[in-house]
Amino acid sequence: MCSAVGEDERSEATGDLPEVNEGRDGARSNDDDPPIVFGYLDLGFDEARFELRRKGFDKPVRIKPGLQANLLKSLLKARDRYLSKTNIECVWVDNGNDVPDSGRMDTEISNLRACMKVLELKIANQRGIGWRLEESSQ
Known about the structure:
- This protein is α+β, with helices and mostly antiparallel strands.
- It has a single domain (3-135), classed as Arc Repressor Mutant, subunit A (Orthogonal Bundle), CATH 1.10.10.10.
- The protein is built from four helices and eight strands; from the N terminus they run E-H-E-E-E-E-E-H-H-H-E-E.
- Strands 1-6-5-4 form a four-stranded antiparallel beta sheet, with no helix packed on it. Strands 2-3 form a two-stranded antiparallel ribbon.
- Helix 2 (67-78) crosses helix 4 (102-117).
- The longest helix is centred in the C-terminal third of the chain and has 16 residues, at 102-117.
C-alpha cells in the first residue's frame, strides 16, 4: 500500500526507486532533483520517488507506482471537483488495465484513502457523483 517515509528509512522503503538522480555530467546528486511544487491542499507529489508531501508534515507518504500514483495525480488535477466513475475508469484503462469491476475500484480507492490519512486528508465520495480529495476536517 503506502507508508510514511523518514530520511533514514528512504532507501529501504523505496526499494528499486532511485534515491538520487544522475546529473547532466553523470554525477549523482540530490541537487538535480526537480523542486516539488506544492499546490492544492499544500500537496506536492515527487514523481521520481513516488512520495506525496504536504506542507507542515515532516514525513512524505510513499505512493505505489502505476495505478495508485495515477489515481492520486487525477485527484490532484481535479482539485475540489469530483471525479466520476467514468473518469476513474479512464485512469484504469490509460494505465493498461481492463475497466475494473466496482469491487476492485473500491479496493484501490480504499488503499489510496489509507495513505491520505497520514496527511490528514480524505478521499470523499458523493454517491452517484464521484470522488475528490479534501481535508479530513471537512
